[in-house]
What we know:
By secondary structure, the chain is an alpha/beta fold. The chain has helices at residues 38-41, 50-60, 73-84, 97-115, 136-142, 145-148, 166-171, 198-209, 260-263, 279-292, 297-318, 341-350, 373-396; strands at 17-21, 24-27, 32-35, 90-94, 123-127, 158-161, 177-182, 185-186, 192-193, 212-216, 240-243, 254-258, 323-329, 332-337, 353-354, 356-358, 362-365.
Amino acid sequence: MSLENIMNTYSRTDLIFESGHGSWLVTKDGKKILDFNSGIAVNALGHCHPHLVDSLQSQIKKLWHCSNLYRIESQELLASRLVASSFADSVFFCNSGAESVEAAIKVARKYSQTRNPNKKKYKIIVTTNAFHGRTLATISAGGQEKHLEGFYPAVGGFKRVEFGNISQIIENIDEETIGILIEPIQGEGGINQAEDTYLKDIREICNQRGLVLIFDEVQCGMGRSGKLFAHEKYDVVPDIMCLAKGLGGGFPIGACLATKKVSQYMTPGTHGSTFGGNPLAMTAANALLDIILSKGFLNKVNESSVKLIDGLQKIIIKYQSVFLKLKGQGLMLGIKCRVPNSLLVDRLVEKGLLTVVAGDNVVRLLPPLNISNEEIDIAISIIEHVAHSIEIENVRK
């Protein structure tokens, strides 16, 4: 077998994983690798979690797909649980993060244009270093040249401001502005988190100007920050929230959550998804919520975060020629490097630790939320070993 029949849209590492259990992956040639990538924050409970496996095995024998033309009880259950655990009143289910952002954009436009039928209102303020998906609209919202190159013209309707700069938001609001779209913690952009009162100030601006606030929590949501949703850390709520990645524990799913105020205009025919909300995805997400919402689970995530951060900080201080600083919170962490981040990622996987690059020359650490203390110790040991070897190489040069 080879890659020749697969469209060349990824620079794939020459690794073939054959199986996975818990926080570990096993390659085709039998090498065990500790997974601190989690499918880019997707495998929230690691690989083959018994409860997810049992739940999906039971459902797969009964019903895979039946269409949203009919009621799906597991969909109604998942929606009720997400609503009960959040600010939202309703949920639209889809298959990915990009789709959830697309849905959020449509909800915001429908709300604004229905309430202002004689005004051309459609612009959404977005930020630098953002990532919202790979569709034409979401790469336009993200605005990164490396994603837009070859796909112009960009989809209109987005106005970009500097992440963290409140003054620029205020300056760029006009009569066509309908909302603000932002990641509370930027993932692909380099694990950049909102500081101080930034999100609260944005919420206040939206309240004053009648704008819709959209939080993209595709990567930072579902316990990754140490809270169920990252915006809870900032004591601020949006009008719309985008979820995906960790929500299905590895099964494809996306969700757009919204208040009744903004979602009431989404009537039959305004949006849809053939596969969104299918019984398998709903079963996976409900099984994941069984675990994440269980007593003490998020407390353990925060305990693991403290242990991991403490170990990483010591390494960063010790190897200042290799590392610059630690970024992020919970189990969504990034090490900003002095050496190329790709070098670190390659060396780490050689020693048995899987990580992933991000913008700003960052190495992302996204372990399963149920990572053990022993596995954290192993990861820290590998990172220190690699940092030591790189430092020695640099000295010899």
